[in-house]
Design brief:
Layout (H helix, E strand, L loop, with lengths): L4 H31 L3 H20 L14 H11 L2
């Protein structure tokens, strides 16, 4: 069995996600106790902005120019039905 760079990337992403899920409640709870719940927005908004910029600058375009362009009606019905009360 050989390792590929994709394997390492998946492991890094899984490790980062696990660390975030483990640490976020403690950090959020401490911040909320110390500064109030509104302080979470002062953390989340800049983090989301930084994440957006990083993804935008580092993700390569993956559009297939030869693919047929059409609306996925079964997918549209599924997502509309699944998100409706």
């Amino acid at each position: 069995m050989s390792r590929t760079p994709d394997d390492d990337g998946a492991k890094a992403a899984a490790g980062t996600a696990a660390a975030g899920q483990a640490l976020a409640p403690a950090i959020g709870g401490g911040l909320t106790q110390a500064l109030g719940w509104r302080a979470l927005f002062w953390v989340n908004v800049p983090l989301c902005f930084v994440a957006f910029v990083l993804v935008w600058r580092t993700t390569l375009e993956s559009r297939d120019e030869t693919a047929e362009r059409s609306i996925d009606y079964p997918g549209l019905v599924t997502i509309a039905g699944g998100s409706s009360p």
